[in-house]
Design goal:
214 residues, alpha+beta, NADH Oxidase, four-stranded antiparallel sheet, globular
Length: 214
């Protein structure tokens, strides 16, 4: 698969098979993602991967928090205001999922709260002293990681819901206090029998987002 095909074929996988991803495959994904660009080669990412028992304890902790309706507290705060264009795209997401996935879309909330049933979740952190410059590099690393996963026959989804209860994640993965959890990425083998994985979100036409001058 060449790079263009990889970018075009990557999509968010929302339901995974329980089959574990072996350490060799995960390391190959991380080695590839490490080639991501960063400002002045600062490489600000620090990666913590939850698998096996550690991930199940995180999953159970999340389940308990959601059941008790505990407040969420992601360390990367959401925008205070979305642009009208962004809100329009967000509002179209559910109708499109309902159209493509039918009743399977009703799993959406449960899958989010159960970390998508993934056998591995990667938490990408950066030092709290760093700024948005480094957060941009974290985004580049995240894309590289997901494309590398695709190249290994895996699926992935980056989701802020994976970071909703950072104290649980910190406890299980021994994340130092000087690091901020920026985003989580679930990785595993896609459950191709689950129709929710057939959904691929639409993209805006170029004329809405790209402006070329001569």
């Amino acid at each position: 698969m060449d790079v263009i095909d990889a970018i075009r074929n990557r999509h968010s996988v929302r339901a995974f098979l329980p089959e574990p991803v072996d350490r060799e495959t995960l390391n190959a994904v991380f080695e590839t993602a490490a080639r991501s660009p960063s400002w002045a080669n600062s490489q600000p990412w620090e990666v913590f991967a939850a698998t096996g028992g550690a991930l199940e304890r995180i999953r159970e902790g999340y389940r308990s928090r959601y059941d008790s309706k505990s407040p969420t507290a992601p360390e990367t705060p959401p925008p205070k205001v979305w642009t009208e264009a962004a809100k329009k795209r967000q509002q179209q997401l559910y109708p499109d999922m309902l159209r493509d996935c039918g009743e399977s879309v009703e799993q959406f909330g449960t899958l989010n709260q159960s970390l998508f049933g993934a056998p591995a979740v990667v938490y990408i952190c950066m030092d709290k002293t760093l700024s948005e410059w480094s957060l941009y590099d974290i985004g580049a690393y995240s894309q590289s990681l997901m494309l590398a996963a695709l190249g290994k026959g895996l699926g992935a989804i980056q989701a802020i819901t994976l970071t909703m209860f950072p104290d649980i994640v910190r406890r299980e993965l021994s994340i130092p206090e000087n690091l901020k959890i920026t985003i989580g990425i679930a990785i595993g083998y896609p459950d191709k029998g689950n129709k929710i994985n057939s959904f691929v979100s639409a993209r805006s036409p170029l004329e809405e987002t790209v402006h070329i001058f001569e």
